Amino acid sequence: MDKYYQKIAAELNIKQHQVENTVELLNEGATVPFIARYRKEATGSLDEIAIAAIRDRMEKLKDLDKRREAILNSIDEQGKLSDELEKQILDAESMTELEDLYLPYKPKRKTRATIAIAKGLEPLARIIMSQNHDDIERRAEQFIDPAKEVNNVEEAIEGACDIMAEWINENKFARTKIRNLFLRKGTIESKVAKGKEADGSKYENYFDWKELIIKSPSHRLLAMFRGEKEGFLKLKIGPPAEEAHDILEQQFCRSDNASGDLVYNALKDSYKRLMQPSMETEVRAMAKEKADEYAIKVFTDNLRQLLMSAPLGQKNVLAIDPGFASGCKVVCLDKQGKLLHNENIYPHPPQNEIRQSISKIVQLVGAYKIEAIAIGNGTAGRETENMFRKIRFDRDVTVVMVNESGASVYSASAVAREEFPDYDVTVRGAVSIGRRLMDPLAELVKIDPKSIGVGQYQHDVNQSLLGKSLDDTVMSCVNAVGVELNTASKQLLSYVSGIGPSIAQNIVDYRNTHGAFKSRSELKKVARLGGKAFEQAAGFLRIRDAANPLDRSAVHPESYPVVNKMIKKLGCSVNELISREELRKKINLNEFVTESIGVPTLTDIMDELAKPGRDPREKFGFFEFDKDVRTIEDLQKGMVLPGIVTNITAFGAFVDIGIKQNGLIHVSNMADRYVSDPNEFVKLNQKLKVKVVDIDRVRGRIQLSLKDVE
Question: Which single residue of 66, 110, 174, 189 has CA 20 to 30 Å from 50?
Fold first, then answer.
């Protein structure tokens, strides 16, 4: 393991002991958020990104070891494992290097080379490969044997060339050189599949496309791979064949004679028939993996920003799922998000019951003491918003457009049916919209992240890696914010460090049976929530009305004794220590350092005492679209409009400007310099001003810019 610790430490530019301690904690079952927050002394204050990187790299190295062991066993069983080969395999640092070493010994199905070897032509192949002889035909005559289906000189030489082609393909050094050529000069060439021009029009940009694969961005690669998978495109990946031939010729051709000519023909055949397809598959997989990683990063960055969106907080909310013919579903929720009332209004065509609808809304706002109105941004959303902004209420009521992506998925889910078994999907969808306004994180964890609409080619990437990355992101966000133990849903609790779905259900069952938790220590009474789970979870759970103020904070129960020492030394209470800054300033942290608690943890404790249970999310900000822009027909070039970023991709960001179609800020329109990462300039849900630079009303496309926006 030491060599792996050294390797990871070098790759991440950290100390070896940081890697060792992190791996030990992970092996003990600690989660990434717990290690990052409560084990800073052990890790040297590594953040979640570094800890996850250590975890993922260790998993890859363990997979490498498993494959290494399988290869060694396979070659050993064949009786071909020399000391030199064993050392090469043990020293191999990548899966590619391992597979190159194993290739000559890998059990094969019948090939042209194995058939030729069975005919006894391997000695002839060695004679030719040595390139010391010019009289090849005479030597080939010795291998004619009709019983072995070698009927003439030509068949003997052909079989020998097949053997040489396989040797060349299996040569580790040749494969390394050709692989490097593919990576340096390999192009990806895309052509439209015959007869698919009309049906595949969405891929027309790639009907005749060619570029270096190493420079092809993630979104373009994934688009071409999807087009190929759907049968609209034909792809070819590789460098100029002549350059590959030159590389192989330099390695294998040593004589200008008949043998050398045959070796040259064999290497051309080897490249075309064996090495080129093999390398194309390998480089395609490498490019796909790289594209997947970037697309997943974009997705997780977007998801994090969405989950960490500013919450409105505990308010009485009236939420609306807008619609035209089917009407608008209206629900009223209390401060905890509990459904109090639901009904339909029909303010839009064809019913046009505007007066009745306004009267009903005014009545509901008064009856349920509504403080905010959440309107879904889907069909009829803008029209509904315009109507609501004209209503004069007898109290201050905030009207907010809410991104409803995924609400329909939630409303039809088992989670929604369990929450609202007596209501239909329209009610559930409206409730989800209202709760998103109050607390986006708490509501969005109930929805599969893939359904939230912030990904890029999410169904084309490695689904296992995507799922793991999304789960990591959701868990990170949930634990960063903290969870109110007595009101959190089962879904939200399941993402708390150390809990999971089963214990989350047990917590809810305990709460339903025994009432609200009065302290964190009471968690230990929950079925199957043992000491390890308590250690992992307790610091991220909050009890708003707990008698002990520390139970309302992010201070971990294991650190309560050190806080008690502080208040004993100062002669004050915990509440006084929290409320009085002058008392906290009197504390010398070095006096409280122990073997298990160092300055990093003590600093976190003091920060938390200054603002117990603080929410790291930004404060809620209000926003309103341009009242004069309702459809694409209202747009004019040069307009500067308010907008909200709804999705970020590798090639730019999509912005809702209050009409049906989102506009695109291409990376070229983000700044006066080259932009490699759109996240450098915009964030999901960010409210900004954009300039309209182009409008394609036929295709419904709007080009926006951040440049020259006053």
Answer: 66
CATH number for the domain harbouring residue 605: 1.10.150.310
Same domain, yes or no: 168 and 291: yes
Question: In which element (H, E) is residue 40 found?
Answer: helix 40-43
> Strand 701-705 and strand 663-666: pairing?
parallel
Domain with residue 367: its CATH number is 3.30.420.140
663 and 601 in one domain? no
**Are residues 334 and 294 part of one domain?**
no
Asked whether residue 655 falls in the same domain as residue 553, the answer is no
Number of domains composing the chain = 5
Alpha carbon dihedral 199, 200, 204, 208, in 10-degree steps, equals -110
d(CA 372, CA 400): 8
Joined tokens for residue 311? 């919450």
> Per-residue pLDDT tens for 520-550?
999 999 999 999 999 999 999 999 999 999 9
Question: 320 by DSSP, 3-state: which?
Answer: strand
CA distances from 198 to 201, 203, 206, 217, 423 (A): 5, 10, 13, 26, 45
Is the pLDDT at 52 greater than 80? The verdict is yes
Q: Are residues 148 and 274 in the same domain?
A: yes
Considering the domain architecture, whether residues 240 and 157 belong to the same structural domain is answered as yes
Model confidence band, residue 650 (pLDDT cutoffs 50, 70, 90): confident
Same-domain check for residues 521 and 660: no
Rounded to a whole number of angstroms, the distance between the first and last alpha carbons of the chain is 57
Provide the H-helix boundaries in 405-486.
407-411, 414-419, 425-438, 440-444, 463-481
CATH number, domain containing residue 188: 1.10.3500.10
Q: Which of 449, 414, 493 is nearest to 306 (CA)?
A: 449
Q: List strands edge to edge, sheet with 339-345.
A: 339-345, 328-333, 317-321, 372-376, 398-402
Give residue-wise pLDDT tens across range 266-318.
999 999 999 999 999 999 999 999 999 999 998 999 999 999 999 999 999 99
Q: What is the pLDDT of residues 340-396, one digit of tens each?
A: 999 999 999 999 999 999 999 999 999 999 999 999 988 999 899 989 988 999 989
Q: Which of 76, 105, 134 marks a domain boundary? A: 105
Domain assignment of residue 31, given as a range: 2-105
Over the stretch 390-446, which tens digit does the pLDDT of each residue have? 899 998 999 999 988 888 899 999 999 999 999 999 999 999 999 999 999 999 999
